[in-house]
Amino acid sequence: MKDNTCTQREFLNGAKIGGDQPFFLISGPCVMENRDLLDRVCAEMIEICGELKIPYVFKSSFDKANRSSVNSYRGPGLSEGIKNLEYIKNKYNVPVLTDIHETHQIGPLKDVLDIYQIPAFLCRQTDLIAESAKTGKWVNVKKGQFLAPADTRHIAVKMKESGNDKVLVTERGTSFGYGNLVFDGRAVPIIHGFDIPVIFDATHSAQLPGAAGNSTGGQREFIPSILRSAVSLGIEGIFMEVHPDPDKALSDATTQYPLSQIKSLLKEMIALDRYVKKEILSTANHS
């Protein structure tokens, strides 16, 4: 599409995405360590996003099934995960998202989830995409580190052929040799070309896969820079994992963003987002 945006459409809780609409935010702790953590993060993020007028979706994983080591903490499991999501959703009246890894997890989550998330390593799993689509819910598919941006069109086709066009694609960096990820900005206009809303995963894009030996490393210091690059391209959403004390997190300790610093970063992104989308659409209207 010439203006490098996707078609404006209804999203969650009356929010709209696409066109000149502001970005929304998917954020929360990487994994469900305990309910107190979920409570604290969600409460603070709702306050921040309410003040900044950012549509907010809470995210946390009940199972990190792709951990580097078999000994790494994976999460509380599906049953406890559902209880945690129900608690957060009911207490804060907020949309919720979590990862799924197998089709049998889809049904039990249907009554609580607003968005199913398919991890990057599973982005080509047809059954997982199709069965998620059949719920009628939004489905956020992480673009695999190995996947060319143009190949995301197949994800959208699988969704539509399953009777659902509520698809989001999250860009989270591309493998660059061994143990390194690079954000290729060309991905955003390419994916927009298929009229697919683009989310940018600022925290996972800063990972260094396998760099810590038995776990993934990362470079948190580059998150603001790569996020600026993505927002400057007119994305529809931002994905960021946050934690009150990232260095003590049980998963992705090197890339979760400090909860105390997220507000100032989001303020900067709002200003950039407003400027960029105004310019994109203005240029398109005069071309």
Whole-angstrom Rg: 18 Å
CATH class: Alpha Beta
CATH topology: TIM Barrel
- Sheet-strand content, in percent, reads 15-25%
Query: Helical percent range?
Result: 25-40%
Poorly predicted runs are none
How many domain units? 1
Strand count: 15
Largest sheet: 8 strands, parallel, barrel
Class by alpha and beta content: alpha/beta
Instruction: Tell me the name of the CATH homologous superfamily.
Output: Aldolase class I
Order the strands across the largest sheet as they lie in space. 3-4-5-6-7-8-11-14
* Secondary-structure element order, N to C: EEEHEHEHEHEHEEEHEEEHEEH
Features:
287 residues; alpha/beta; TIM Barrel; 8-stranded parallel barrel; two-stranded antiparallel ribbon; 8 helices; cytoplasm
Descriptive account of the structure:
- Residues 14-276 form the DAHP synthetase I/KDSA domain.
- One of its GO terms (cellular component) is cytoplasm.
- Belongs to the KdsA family.
- With 287 residues, this protein is α/β, with parallel strands linked by helices.
- The protein has one domain (24-285): Aldolase class I (TIM Barrel, Alpha-Beta Barrel), CATH 3.20.20.70.
- The chain contains eight helices and 15 strands.
- An eight-stranded parallel barrel has the order 3-4-5-6-7-8-11-14, surrounded by five helices. The chain has a two-stranded antiparallel ribbon with strand order 1-2.
- Strand 4, helix 2 (78-92) and strand 5 form a beta-alpha-beta unit.
- The relative contact order is 0.16.
